[in-house]
Amino acid sequence: MHPSFEKYIPFVPIQMQTRTWPDRQITQAPVWCSVDLRDGNQALVDPMNVEEKLRLFHTLVDIGLKEIEVGFPSASETEFSFLRTLIEGGHIPNDVTIQVLVQARAHLIQRTFEAIAGAKNVILHFYNSTSTLQRKVVFRMEMDGIVKIAVEAAQLIRRLSAPVIASGMNLRYEYSPESFMGTEMDNAVHICRRVMEELHATPEQPVILNLPSTVENCMPNYFADEIEYFIANLPNRECAIISLHPHNDRGCGVATAELGLLAGADRVEGTLFGNGERTGNVDLVTLAMNLYTQRVDPKLDFSDINKIKEVYESVTKMRIGERQPYAGELVFTAFSGSHQDAINKGFHYMQETRTDFWEVPYLPIDPADVGRQYEPIIRINSQSGKGGAAFIMQQNFDFDLPKAMHPEFGSVVQKETDRVGKELKPERIFELFTAEYVDLAMPYRLVKHAFSETTDAEGNSHVTFSGTLAHKETFFDVVGEGNGPIDAFFNAIRGQKMDKFTFVDYKEHAIRSGSDSKAVAYIHLRAMNGKDVFGVGISHNISLAPLRGILSAINRAKRLEII
Fold it and tell me: Which residues contact 437 (CB under 8 A, 6 or more apart)?
């Protein structure tokens, strides 16, 4: 029997006669606040030690975060000691504000003030739960009692702040009605209004009102309605900074944050890669890079995402998934043949047009912008198409195969992927290419050769090729003339049972750079029966490479029984 779904209470959206958020755009980055060292740390199987916390703190600073929640100093001696280490050790830059969290309880608030002594810039973040479910199940209290808890905490904080502020600390206040998403909006507005009053909020000294999706229980569009309703009904809106703290229980944390910003929020609290309790907090990397793709400066630096990943995985003992947006190992990788073809064409388009914009299908950002390399963009398995192997040869080994050759080499690679049943690494693809096209010495091979060139009275060039070929163990001399080395060689071999081909096309380019560069020649021949075949020749000698390419094509035709 299917589990009963009828025991669940559905979310009841607020009734909005009009809403404006669907027509808005996000045109600038919000204020960012990292809660990695608090939300993220408390969610670890093995919480970070002081050394690991310091390493992560400095990484967050390097990324550009200016507000960092560093812990819950009243919760344990470990948390308290770490905060003192930050302050007394001089780890906090002058332009960075540390944030500390505390429940709306008097003795914890007092302990928190002891912990922040001597800091320059501090956000004191206090909270109590306000949701319908928490009031009914946990506190067994009406809303008036919940408001009383928040108001008394605000009064105490205000009183304890006076000497701290007088000493020179830049102290700001943040209040969270925990489980905001599950709170009646009029109750949420009321409790926040009362806290603002007790903290004497002004436009010059606004209170941060953090509206958390503590447990995500509705679709992002319903949450956006809540935010717009809350802001529209909050007295003295100019005295508040509206902050979001989305969790990811429904897998919609990013959408909840983005739609919340459309609805008027100013600030977002989150973690790197979405670390945090249960399904985690909203992922700051994804949010910031989503802005980046829309030509909005996120004000955060993820240009070396691999280094940030290394720090994160080291201190948290967790692993970033292969499909994690922007950071996962495979997120810029295409196995699908049609995707590979489109990506390849996108790179060619950008090179040809020299466009100022990033216009590559299937890649929402340039991987280089987050410090990722181009090599793994296309990877080859049994799902890959004709152009994928050619892309690998170009990006990894500098071989620019003619487009007409892609299906033929793609077929070679496809047979191998079907045989092994797994992905082929670039090195294996190169081995297949070499074996198929380059290392062919049978049945025909060139033993020795020479060219001579003359120019007639009209300035036309005449090239004579003379050389020795071998067919298996039989040697024979050939001579031919033409308007260039390739034409002369092709004419020379016509009378040696190698005359069943017509010359279709030729392409040549250098591989490697400097004095050690080689020429690679791609030869396209067509047999008398209309079948096409390609050959590849490589040599330091630019005249020898195409000759080897012609013999490669003929030898392949013999092996494949095309003639």
Answer: 409, 534, 535, 536, 552, 556
Q: How far is CA 427 from CA 183, 402, 419, 431, 489, in A?
A: 58, 20, 17, 6, 33
Question: pLDDT digits over 345-403, tens only?
Answer: 899 899 999 999 999 999 999 999 999 987 677 666 666 666 788 888 988 899 999 98
Is residue 391 included in any domain, yes or no?
Answer: yes
At residue 432 the predicted structure's pLDDT band, cuts being 50, 70 and 90, is very high
Joined together, the tokens standing for residue 56 give 């992560």
Euclidean distance between CA atoms 117 and 158, whole angstroms: 16
Rounded Cα distance between 290 and 284, Å, is 10
- Please classify residue 457 by burial: count the beta carbons closer than 10 Å to its beta carbon, then call 0-12 exposed, 13-18 middle and 19+ buried: exposed
- What was the pLDDT predicted at 541? 87
Same domain for 345 and 379, yes or no, is yes
Residue among 201, 200, 290, 282 nearest 238 (CA): 201
SS3 283: strand
Is 472 exposed, middle or buried, given 0-12, 13-18 or 19+ CB atoms closer than 10 A? exposed
CA separation for the pair 433, 388 (Å, rounded) = 13
112 lies in the same domain as 243: yes
Extract the tokens encoding 378: 């296309």
Supply the range of the domain harboring residue 404.
337-435
Return the SS3 of 188. Answer: helix
Interior/surface letters 195-211, b for 16+ CB within 10 angstroms, e for the rest: bbebbebeeeebbbbbb
DSSP string, 421-468: -SPBPHHHHHHHHIIIIIS--SSEEEEEEEEEEEE-TT--EEEEEEEE
pTM above threshold 0.70: yes
405 and 515 in a single domain? The answer is no
Q: pLDDT over 70 for what percent of the chain? A: 96
The model's pLDDT over 41-94, given as tens digits with 9 standing for 90+, comes to 998 999 999 999 999 999 999 999 999 999 999 999 999 999 999 999 999 999
Q: 11-25, 237-251, 342-356, 512-526: which range is least confident on average? A: 512-526
* Contact status, residue 325 vs residue 90, Cβ threshold 8 Å: no
**99 and 67 Cβ atoms separated by less than 8 Å:** yes
Q: What is the chain's mean pLDDT, rounded?
A: 92
Q: HSE-up of 188 (CA within 13 Å, CB side)?
A: 27
Confidence of residue 242 (pLDDT cuts 50, 70, 90): very high
Coil, strand, or helix at residue 480?
strand
Range of weakest confidence among 99-103, 256-260, 329-333 = 329-333
Is there a domain that residue 429 lies in?
A: yes
Q: Which amino acid is at 484?
A: G
Neighbouring CB atoms inside 10 A of 479's CB total: 12
CATH number at residue 279: 3.20.20.70
In 10 A of CB 359, how many CB atoms?
Answer: 12
pLDDT tens-digit profile of 282-315? Answer: 999 999 999 999 999 999 999 999 999 999 999 9
Residue 122 pairs in a beta bridge with 98, 171
